[in-house]
Each structure stands twice: as C-alpha cells, then as structure tokens.
Amino acid sequence: SELRTRLLQAFSEADGEFLSGQKLSETLGCSRTAVWKHIEDLRSEGYKLEAVRKRGYRITRKPDKISGNEIQLGLKTEFMGRHIHFEEVVASTQKIAHTLAGDGALEGTLVVADQQTEGRGRLARAWYSPKQTGVWMSMILKPEIPINKTPQLTLLTAVALIQAIEDVTGLTPEIKWPNDILINGRKAVGILTELQAEADRVHSVIIGVGINVNHTKEQFPEELQHIATSLAEETGQQIDRAKLIQSVMIRFEKLYKSYLSHGFKPVKLLWESYAISLNKKLIARTLQGTLRGRAAGIDDEGVLLLETDEGKLEKIYSADIEIQS
Ligand code: BTX
User: Fold this and answer.
1) CA Rg, the chain, in Å?
2) Residue of 95, 118, 127 best suited for mutating to test ligand 1, as the one with most atoms within 8 Å of CB
3) Would you say the CB of residue 229 lies under 6 angstroms from ligand 1?
4) What CATH number labels 68-274?
5) Does domain 2-61 have CATH number 1.10.10.10?
6) Is ipTM > 0.95 here?
7) How confident is the model over 142-165, as pLDDT tens digits?
C-alpha cells in the first residue's frame, strides 16, 4: 500500500535512527494505531524492528529480497542463469523447470522462487522452503551424455555448491554421499537431480538445489532443528542470496564446461577432497535392503563403492547413508 511505502521511506531517510510513533503518525497522516499495525505487517514480512519506549522504532534488519534482475545484474557467465524464471511463490521450482524444459528452454535456464509450498526431496520427501530465507532453484541442462552418467552431475553440483559457499561465506562445507552438504554435521543444502529422457538419450537434466541461507534456528520446524542448519546460523551473518546464486552459477558453469570436455576425473578428485564419508564405516539403506561396511570411494560413474563387513565390494546407486565413525 501507499502508506507502507511511505513508512519504509521514512525509515530509510531516518537512516537507522529512531522514529517515534508520534512523528510517524504525523508524517504519514494516520493514527498511531495504524502506524503500529503497519509495523506489525513489516515484521511479519521479515523486517526486524526495534521498539524503545519514548524513542520509537527503527529498522535493524531488512528482509533479503531476490528477483531475476538482482541475480542477473553483473552475472558473468556464458549460459548459466542467462535466462531466469523468477516467482515469489511456487509449489516446486522442479515442476516449473520440467515444463520449461519440455517447451524447449535453453541450457542454463534457471528457475528461482522465494518460497515453495511443495518443495520436494528425494523419494517423495518434503523439502522445507519458507519465504525470504533460502535459495530454492532448479537448473535446466542439456548435456549429451548417456543416462547412466547423470549421477555424476549431482556430484558436480555438490562441488560447485561447496565452492560457491566458500566464496561467499568462507565456510567449507562437507559432502555426504550422494547429495547432502553438511556444515558442522548439519544439513545446509539438498540436491535433487531429475531427468527427461527417452531410451538412452537424455533430453534434459533438471537439478534442484535448496540452500538454507538466512534461517535462524527457531525458524526451522522442530523435527529439523537438530539435523538442519543455515549459512547465517553458521556464520552469524546475513548472506546476500542473489550474490550466492551468482557464485553458484559461475562455479557450476566452470566445472560443467570442464566436465563436458575432460570428463568426470577432475570433478571426482575435487569431490573426494570434500567428502566426509570416505573410509568411514557406514550403513547404507537402499530400497533393496540395508548394507553395512566401509566407504571405499566412488567409481568413475559417481557410484558409491561400499566394502561390506564380509569384504565384498558393492556398488550403491542410491541410498540414505548413516556415518558411524
Ligand atoms: P533428501 O530426500 O535428501 O532430503 C529430504 C529430507 O531432508 C527430509 O525428509 C527432511 O528430513 C530433511 N529436510 C527437509 N527440508 C530441509 C531443509 N530445508 N534443510 C535441511 N533438511 C531438510 C534433498 O532431498 C533434496 C532437496 C532439494 C530441494 C530443492 S529446492 C529447489 C528444488 N525444488 C524442489 O521442489 N526441490 C528442489
């Protein structure tokens, strides 16, 4: 509303100084109750306002807005993120990306949302994607690779995400095979790779990326509070989401180009340098059953090699991993 815009303008002009309720109601020409109501609205939109008796209000934190423009401004890539489809609220960016890919979207097209109401993880699990806090996005790729090589792209994405997070925050996250990125043992990022393919030909690979960026601990639902974390939680600082997305685009494009011309080897080496599960004892829960053993590495396809307690080498294509030591 117009009043809201003027209220924000007044705070912006005050430049961090307090504005009294009285002053605000005079400036805006409305009652103090109306001022108070608008301040409550701002709070529910993610603004942090400090209220001090006799002095008034001041804004201490603005919500971090993202938009296609902000992401594209100054983005130095060839194709990643050159086309951005941004929406405030979607069910899932994966769904939109699937439709766009089917309609001939170009390689590198990016779908970004501020909030997802039905964000999804693997195996129909839910991915918690509240507004104004995270990076919820899907990248559309058109690599000419056989279907059995596509898991490599999940690993490549994990490396790109770690490098981008390092660039922006200075933190070095760790990878838990195949797609979890952890900081201090808690999940900060999820990756979901989906395909549009026919026979053995890949039409599109759609890589969904969820990054918990500015969540406070209390903002996670209770069941996630001890398994999830955010970049802000770990650094103690608000992170600019648009900048983070730019960094992911740059890092991803560089690795992806190297992958297309030199293959998986260089990516594999980087991936291994960030992996925590290597050589550890783990339990792998697959749809076919549970295996126990030691993580011996990943093979050139990106498949996990598990040396079982009986000394057999098993290939694990998809599983939930519990690290034991
Ligand atoms: P996953 O199946 O490995 O992880 C899902 C599990 O992670 C859930 O069952 C829950 O325990 C936990 N979890 C849910 N939400 C969060 C969260 N915000 N932070 C940490 N842990 C959480 C991982 O699946 C793949 C997730 C991809 C999400 C992106 S977001 C953009 C794109 N669109 C979409 O719908 N999904 C992808």
Assistant:
1) 23
2) 127
3) no
4) 3.30.930.10
5) yes
6) yes
7) 999 999 899 999 999 999 999 999
